Amino acid sequence: MKTTTENIEKIFDECPTIEDFYFELYMIWCESVTINSTEFQQVLACASVSRWFAMEFSKMIKEYELSISKYPNATAAECFTLYISWIYKLFSINPKPLLEVAKRKEKTSTKAIGIKVPTSIFNQN
What we know:
Layout: H1 5-14, H2 18-32, H3 37-45, H4 47-69, H5 76-88, H6 96-103, E1 107-112, E2 115-120
Antiparallel strand pairs: 1-2
Helix pairs in contact: 1-2, 2-3, 4-5
């Protein structure tokens, strides 16, 4: 799904709380920076990526609050449009080094009768 301001508005309308909206937004952002379900799961579960996203989200909210304070007579619809446009900016940035670490397949080895056998953690079902 291509992320647009209309899609973000729809998600905002469907989510009952700001926490639900934040998590849904985070999942869509993770989906936008990955190419398969394995990478998606790795990025979604990566604590450093999650912290980065939370920090960027809070920056966007602060910038929104600063910009909206300059227009005290703005209508609710104008405030909402501005809010969505600030949130949409999250999809134009990503932490490449953190994403590379999150997507990296970790190699492990196991011993079988005294012989080290390299395996990937994804093969251990």
